[in-house]
């Protein structure tokens, strides 16, 4: 339905129907149970069309209709269209240098069940992480909460890496062991393991953690209704997910938003990427802890630094100001280049944000470019630390949401898997 | 037809027809005369639908159908759909610190007639520029080449400024006299003058010069078919137009792409914008000429510098290398952040490009990010110095192209203008 790629495509009746089914299912996925009357108004379609679309989605097992709990007005109550959250779910994975998280997320975006492992940072190899994911997946799929007839509609995995969009290949995994993770076709690997071990044939999508965080915050977080935003996230490294004009900005290959590797200080430190003066060298966790005189690498210490500064500790105040200056400089670059209406500070930036937001704001407003930067909102994630996990689920649901009936037909036509959960 | 703004809109039959009319008219506007057979295949619609759409556009006076000149195959020849270039035109204006250009551009993108003034740089005030535009417009509209019944479908103006997309207000005009140009509602001013003097009631669109250059290069220049590109342009200042995922990236207010004001050297020179170390301070024309030991500010000297370096002049070689290093640094930042498949070097960057492209490429490929930057193509504009002017025409045609029949109806319903070209 998008008029892209040189504007050459017309739209057929069949595509119109697919678009409208997709739009309706997206609506209830994003907004939750919604009456037919609200859908009619929101989607700008007439009642009979909404009725027909709902009936189709209901027959496919994706939504159900309920009488509203309370009905105060005159006339027949408008039926409420409800996403079948328990029956249609995604598996969402979040992989980091010190954690592995797996969750079962229902249509509608609710985390139904989760397993997680937090551990010291390490060069954990791919097989180690796969082992944990497999164990967690087995536990999630064995739950007695899963009703008969439920199915997995998609699998999404978030990784701190540049992910090639054509095939889910990892191309730049700065904080993992490159020999093991580099150029790993993670999507293929996950798909094969899920088919072989659990008989799960759903499509697998792999995405960059910051990109998925941005997607989740726009779908059901702090940025609902916001068409232009940048979600910056810092842990060891620094990255960003960008939404421009209402669309995730992936770039040609999927690598857009590597803001941590903007060079902002050519006479500065050498970065792990090989360049000198990348933004990440001035504001990544190692830089923050070094400025604060900490060096033990525990994540908690960044929060401690902020608390110490808030309590008036001189050294911590100066350290935070120093880091704040560099963060402010890069944020100004990002705002100047993308002109977002919102910048979301995720990961450790969320921790330091309360102490430096004034500094960031002052820098944005300074100079004659202030006038084009004054409107931007600076916020922390609405979904907290779960942005990325929820984003992985959103990405997992995408093929179903894009073509609900086509997707269900294709799933039904697949050969029976050779094995099941025990 | 776009599923934007929170995915809430369905599509009606009427919108489907509008989309298909728009797509067909865009196709012949972009590709020129096209047979019904090719349209059927390209638009993925059936023959009778293409026939009906063509008939509608023909009745509205936007296209005409012709028998092909040569017909070699069996069966009836497929009629060729031709945009009515002489009858449906745009007025395109290009405003710079040392030039004023006006052109009449036909549907299909051909420049039918033009007037231009090149002069020494100066703080020309708004009224001065308006005077030249008015005179040029009068000359263009008096041409005997304009057939009876022809109409102006839109007006586009390119300015070296940050332009607010909600109302065409100029917000940051770094190289013009701010007291005069700053916060000027240029779109309104142009519209009023065109109605009063010429009875032209067509919609007026104002855009940033780099944004319009990007649009033109993608529509009919070096970037046809390219969905992710950055067009960087340098004259006195430095800016960029960005297309991401096939859509012009405007940002929330229209200010996206101000890459000249990325800070890349915090210990560097003070920029006119008030910040220190903007990219523009290292690579704008003054910086290039200063590095070369030139200071007379004539544009030709940048080309001379490149020629001298090519001829082996040591000082020029070193100057070009120095500037090349800074250009390469910023281009790497741009590629890292946007992941385009193409970077187009416009304005004076086109002049220096031959001498520094090796340096830019080497820098892109260095370090571990090289793998995510290796695919980008580095090119100069296919439309040469006319990119921006053609882009202004493309922007002018946009309301007509978006809803051809609705646009023509609205134009027909307008009250007769109070005055005409004498």
TrEMBL record, chains A, B:
Q: Which residues form a coiled coil?
A: none
Q: Which domain of life is it from?
A: Bacteria
Q: Which Pfam families match?
A: ROK
InterPro entries recorded for this chain?
ATPase_NBD, ROK, WH-like_DNA-bd_sf, WH_DNA-bd_sf
Tell me the protein family, please. Belongs to the ROK (NagC/XylR) family.
The name this protein carries in UniProt is: ROK family protein
> Which taxonomic lineage does the organism of this UniProt entry have?
Bacteria, Bacillati, Actinomycetota, Actinomycetes, Catenulisporales
């Amino acid at each position: 339905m998008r008029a892209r790629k040189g504007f050459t495509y017309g739209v057929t009746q069949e595509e119109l129907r697919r678009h409208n089914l997709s739009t309706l299912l997206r609506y209830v996925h994003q907004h939750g149970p919604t009456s037919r009357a609200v859908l009619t108004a929101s989607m700008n379609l007439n009642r009979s069309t909404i009725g027909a679309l709902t009936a189709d989605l209901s027959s496919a097992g994706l939504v159900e209709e309920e009488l509203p709990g309370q009905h105060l007005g005159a006339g027949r109550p408008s039926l409420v269209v409800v996403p079948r959250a328990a029956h249609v779910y995604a598996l969402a994975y979040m992989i980091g240098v010190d954690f592995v998280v797996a969750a079962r997320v229902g249509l509608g975006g609710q985390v139904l069940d989760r397993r997680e492992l937090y551990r010291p940072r390490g060069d954990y190899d791919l097989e180690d992480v796969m082992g944990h994911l497999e164990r967690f997946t087995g536990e999630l799929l064995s739950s007695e909460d899963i009703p008969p007839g439920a199915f997995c509609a998609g699998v999404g995995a978030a990784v701190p890496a540049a992910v090639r969009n054509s095939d889910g290949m990892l191309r730049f995994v700065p904080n993992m062991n490159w020999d093991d993770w580099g150029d790993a076709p993670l999507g293929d690997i996950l798909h094969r393991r899920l088919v072989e071990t659990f008989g799960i044939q759903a499509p697998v999508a792999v995405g960059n953690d910051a990109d998925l965080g941005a997607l989740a915050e726009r779908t059901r977080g702090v940025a609902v209704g916001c068409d232009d935003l940048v979600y910056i996230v810092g842990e060891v490294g620094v990255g960003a997910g960008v939404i421009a004009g209402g669309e995730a900005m992936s770039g040609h290959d999927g690598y857009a938003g590597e803001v941590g590797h903007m060079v902002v200080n050519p006479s500065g430190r050498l970065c792990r990427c090989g360049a000198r003066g990348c933004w990440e060298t001035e504001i990544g966790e190692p830089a923050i802890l070094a400025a604060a005189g900490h060096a033990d690498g525990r994540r908690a210490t960044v929060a401690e630094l902020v608390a110490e500064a808030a309590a008036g500790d001189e050294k911590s105040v100066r350290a935070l100001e120093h880091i704040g200056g560099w963060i402010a400089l890069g944020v100004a670059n990002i705002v100047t280049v993308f002109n977002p209406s919102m910048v979301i500070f995720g990961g450790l930036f969320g921790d330091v944000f309360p102490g430096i937001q004034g500094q960031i704001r002052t820098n944005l407003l300074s100079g004659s470019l202030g006038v084009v930067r004054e409107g931007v909102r600076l916020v922390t994630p609405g979904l907290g630390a779960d942005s990325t996990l929820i984003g992985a689920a959103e990405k997992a649901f995408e093929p179903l949401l894009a073509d609900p009936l086509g997707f269900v037909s294709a799933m039904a036509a697949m050969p029976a898997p050779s094995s099941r959960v025990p």
